[in-house]
Amino acid sequence: MPDRDPNIVTSGLSGRVEQDGVTVTVSIYRLETDPEWVLEVVNANGTSIVWDDPFPTDEAAEEEFWRTVEEEGMKTFLDGAEIIPLRR
Q1: Is 63 exposed, middle or buried (0-12, 13-18, 19+ CB in 10 A)?
Q2: 25 DSSP 8-state letter
Q3: Would the CA dihedral through 54, 55, 58, 61 be positive or negative?
Q4: Domain carrying residue 58
Q5: pLDDT truncated to tens, each residue of the chain (88 aa)?
Q6: What is the pTM of this model?
Q7: Considering the domain boundaries, does residue 41 fall inside one?
Q8: Do the Cβ atoms of 9 and 42 come closer than 8 Å?
Q9: Which residue of 33, 41, 51, 82 is most buried, as measured by CB atoms within 10 A?
């Protein structure tokens, strides 16, 4: 029997966020076989921004989203916005 692809687990912290006239979809997810979470933000044009490094918990991913909003503003997720260097 061939191996099946793992299911994607979506955090309940995922959802749509509207602030400062900008709407994005925040997706926090992981593979069922991987304990680390991915943070992805998709803007109204369908542009996807995915953090390079995974997070140990879905709460940590959500905190990073809100930290980015606080420091850079929601406009950072718009097309043509200045690229933010990610923490290493």
Answers
A1: middle
A2: E
A3: negative
A4: 8-73
A5: 678 899 999 999 999 999 999 999 999 999 999 999 999 999 999 999 999 999 999 999 999 999 999 999 999 999 875 555 556 5
A6: 0.85
A7: yes
A8: no
A9: 41
Measured CA to CA, the distance from residue 16 to residue 31 in angstroms comes to: 21
Domain contains 1 = no
Does residue 80 belong to any structural domain of this protein?
A: no
The dihedral built from the CA positions of residue 7, 56, 77 and 24, taken in this order, carries a sign that is positive
Q: Is residue 39 part of a domain?
A: yes
Tally the domains of the chain: 1
Nearest Cα to Cα of residue 26 among 13, 44, 45, 9: 13
Give buried/exposed letters for 3-15 (b at 16+ CB in 10 A, else e): eeeeeeeebebbe
